[in-house]
Amino acid sequence: MYKRHKQYRLYGYDYAQDGCYFITLVTKDRLHHFGEIINDELILNKIGHFAQKNINMFLYDSTLQNPFANNPYFLNQQPHLISINEFVIMPNHIHLIVEIVNKEYKEPVFVKGLQPLVKGSISSFINHFKGKIKRWCTDNNITDFFWQRRFHDRIIRDNKEYARIKEYINTNIVNWDKDTENI
Q1: Bridge partners of 84?
Q2: What are the structural domain ranges in the chain?
Q3: For residues 93 and 148, what is the distance between their CA atoms, to the nearest angstrom?
Q4: What's the DSSP call for residue 20?
Q5: CA dist 96 → 20, 24, 25, 163 (Å)
Q6: pTM of the entire structure?
Q7: Alpha-carbon gap, residue 179 to 58, rounded angstroms
Q8: Positions of the chain with pLDDT under 70
Q9: Distance CA 163, CA 140 (A)
Q10: What CATH number belongs to 19-176?
């Protein structure tokens, strides 16, 4: 009998299609690599500042004529536009609301089993984001930084859910003392 692999993503869902996704990235062993919270304020360290710099590249700016102007996926003429609409960096994890907007819609193809990363998908974006931060740490002789494998995602289904998650992200720092991730 073959061992069944646990499904971490919604079966049959195309994670490169339009939509908003609530993403949580956690450091290995939940170690506090991004900074510390003092008096309900996050004080970022070097790794935290570098993570924020990379998040800022994808921030959605509704005041711009082209809010995706600084987006590397847009500049490289990829078929998808990816923006980060909301985020919070915590001492040992990062919460993001990531939005995908297609320039060209293609009918999703559903395949079973393992498959390579799809350009413009949430998995591809997170893989590159986590990899860039890990490479920067290695290049700067920060050898004890590692990510937890995989990431947590939630497909945001409507405006009410979006508002609830946005509120959670915006109050995450002040609720740190009650957070189960605060070990």
Answers
A1: 59, 98
A2: 19-176
A3: 10
A4: E
A5: 10, 6, 8, 13
A6: 0.80
A7: 27
A8: 1-12, 61-80, 102-116, 180-183
A9: 38
A10: 3.30.70.1290
